Amino acid sequence: MRKSRSQTAKCKMPGLLRRWSVAAGPTRMLYSRNPSPGESMLRIGYVLHAMPVAGAEVLTAETIRRLRGQIQPTIFCLDSVGLLGERLRQEGVEVICLDRRPGRDWRLVGRLRRAITERGIHILHAHQYTPFFYSALAKLSLLRHRPRLIFTEHGRHFPDVVSPLRHSVNRWLLSPLADAINACARFSADALAQNDGFPRHRIEVILNGIDVSRYTHLPDRASLRAQLGLAPNRRYVLTVARFHPVKDHATLLKAFAQVAAQRNDVDWLLAGDGPLRGELESLAESLNVRARVHFLGVRHDIPELMRAADIFAMTSLSEAASLTLMEAMASGLPVVVTAVGGNPELVSDGVDGLLVPRGDITATTRALLRLLDDSCLAQSLGTAARQRAERHFRLEHTIAAYAELYRRLCPSTVSKPSFESI
Predict the structure, then answer these.
(1) Could you tell me whether strands 293-297 and 354-356 are parallel, antiparallel, or unpaired per DSSP bridges?
(2) What is the number of domains present in the chain?
(3) What is the extent of the structural domain holding 341?
(4) Residue 143, Cα to own-chain centre: how many angstroms?
(5) Are 388 and 305 contained in the same domain?
(6) Do residues 80 and 225 share a domain?
(7) Which end of the chain, N or C, is surrounded by fewer C-beta atoms within 10 Å?
């Protein structure tokens, strides 16, 4: 008895390798265009979950903007377009939503394959594991004109647990399909090898970067505080992060409560939003510090907030190469962050910031009090942090590294772009 198409879609991966031409559903085409015959511009497809305003997505957007006119980009979003995706559409970038269904959506492989083929994509750049998973299978299903495939790993889940099956599939099936593998920090590269099974010698580290100039050319603190409605005679600890369990705001809130009990002139500013906001507001009430904890919501003036603050603090359970931390350091803020993930790659303890153990309320309290009570130390760490950011965290360095990777993988049928205007 023959299986129906819906039954076929539920088959496991090996069977689907023979059925993708049947299972491919319609692609939602947004701002569609077909390459002109003989067009020689390098066509790059970026594959992501969505395009909200977040680390990997901001990097993708800035890469496209800075290489404008030298590449022909298309963004493939697995789940939704997102705010940043809508902005890029307004700038003339093609953004396609593939409408991934819950679970493993095997039909998405066919939709992505068809979208790649229709646009004649030369290079497919997948950010994070799930976009790479679908990109690799789409490449595998192509019998000819396969695009070159780049896998860029960013953050890792916490706890970072990978099944033996996924480890084996990565090592023997998916890894050989990647023409280049990189990670935004050594921490991510090591985890990709040790936990996910990718060969470590193939994983290059391309450090994330920020537009340093946005954080170094701002008005003086007094005028910014007046503009933001902040008191001139108070001191402010700033945190910029989504309210998510991995950010562990609760540890920092409990530490701040101890600081507040000892220093009457200190408040805490929290920029961001998320599912834990109500829980954190209740915790602040129970700790009797609600009046000194300011929930600012999602902000679009982060450089100004950082310039107006006195200390940056973040007690995440896990981080890769945190853009927010880089921004705080570029602002010249002394930082207190947990010694997890890629943070120790960005901060040298006692040199350009203070590192504390994960989940340690006492150590976090001591670090905050140390900076509040020693203005010379705070200024010294902030100055060193800014210098480190100016030397090592520049966005143009990151994009130049990706541009060189694109040049290296550029097919012989396309003129290699010079990328002179990064």
Answers:
(1) unpaired
(2) 2
(3) 212-393
(4) 33
(5) yes
(6) no
(7) N
Q: Within this chain, do residues 249 and 175 fall inside the same structural domain, yes or no?
A: no
Residue 366: C-alpha distances to residues 109, 262, 374, 385 (Å): 51, 11, 12, 20
- Is 12 among the domain residues? yes
How many residues in the chain? 422
Q: What is the DSSP letter of 308?
A: H
Neighbours of 160 (CB within 10 A): 13
Q: What are the pLDDT tens digits along the chain (422 aa)?
A: 444 434 443 344 444 333 333 333 333 333 334 444 445 799 999 999 999 988 899 999 999 999 999 999 999 999 999 999 999 999 999 999 999 999 999 999 999 999 999 999 999 999 999 999 999 999 999 988 899 999 999 988 888 899 999 999 999 999 999 999 999 999 999 999 999 999 999 999 999 999 999 998 888 899 999 999 999 999 999 999 999 999 999 999 999 999 999 999 999 999 999 899 999 999 999 999 999 999 999 899 999 999 999 999 999 999 999 999 999 999 999 999 999 999 999 999 999 999 999 999 999 999 999 999 999 999 999 999 999 999 999 999 999 999 999 999 999 889 888 887 77
Mark whether 323 and 363 lie in a shared domain.
Answer: yes
CB atoms under 10 Å from CB of 22, counted, come to 12
Cα separation values, 139 from 149, 293, 368, Å: 8, 50, 50
CATH number at 365 reads 3.40.50.2000
